[in-house]
Amino acid sequence: MTLLRSWVESANSADTNFPLNNLPYGVFAVDSETMPRCGVAIGDMIFDLFKAEEDGLITVADDAVFDVPYWNDFMELGRDAWSALRTQLTALLAEGATELHDYLVAQADVEMELPIAVSEYTDFYAGMQHAKNMGAILRGSPDLPANWLHIPVGYNGRASSVVVSGTDIHRPNGQMKAPDAAIPSFGPTKRLDIELEMGAIVGTGCAMGRPITVDQADDMIFGYVLLNDWSARDIQGWEYQPLGPFQGKAFGTTISPWIVTAAALEPFRTSVPEREMELLPYLDSTKDGLFDIELNVLMQPKGADKASLLATTNYSRMYYSAAEQLCHHAVGGCGMATGDLLGSGTISGPTPDEYGSLMEKSWAGREPFTLDTGETRTFIEDGDTLTLTGAAKGDGYKIGFGACVGTILPAKSFPV
Ligand code: MN
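That is the input. Now the predicted structure with manganese (II) ion docked in place:
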């Protein structure tokens, strides 16, 4: 596929994240008095869907679905409605169509909000290189856990701490224990980290007790966002056995503001890597479940005039697809809902310049790395800004995600 041209001139550049081919969905606020609205990004503008629906320019259901500041009501309508909206928007915004400038707002003039009401958040561990690196660092062996080649390993996280890109995160306080200490201590984490992940957004759910196949799960996924699963490694290291991550992961999870739809990513589908052990038949699928999406991690210290590139990797590095994870999640009878968010797990490639966490990049703090400013880091320091970016690259265009950004502020004293 090549670039589809739009009457919105900025959407026709090879560099834009948001050409007509993309049409990602978000929620924007023009000021603090007006209710945030659903919109679609086109070039450096946003097409206002609340206004377009109110004026009858688009119709997706008998009742309005864009009179609320989240995409859940629309997602619940299902795949036919998703496809109908994409068709209507592609026609309305195409070169040669009536130019509806009154429906455009500049992205530079608005604040982005969370695009969905997050129902629940589950985080997985589906990157093989990351799992091997963490094994080598924490347990002295890169051998995968016995279950890893059979199960998409995951844990239930917290929807309450999912925030939109641009939200500052305070360094969390927690309980930790140094290896040579007799007793644990309480205070700000000293090992604050990121995890480069993709988030899959469940568009239509399944009832409790009604498990789904991988192919059905693939059809239920509405779209994808970039996801930073902020992690406090010292808190995590003390608490994680035997039940898994808890407070070390519960203080913030940042997602990018634009949902890139599964439809926009369709030309970039790619297969999961060859299975090292055959999966049990309930995890069989007929479709390629991953996407060729280039991903970057950047760090910018406070006061620096530019960010340093820490890693570049690709979503196709994952071992399990989001559809496999969703199938496994529901197979025992767990109901899944519109607005459920599934983190892929940290995405790391085979070499250090593809590592998607600082734990791996600094090898648990043993190997500091140098930024473009000349400063060194092992983990995140107060004032550092971490940015994830991502894009699928087409012929003369890209399907971009925009940025997933967060700045770390100093820990708060306790009690607050
Ligand atoms: Mn994670």
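Residues 123, 195, 197, 229, 343, 345-346 surround manganese (II) ion (CB under 6 Å).
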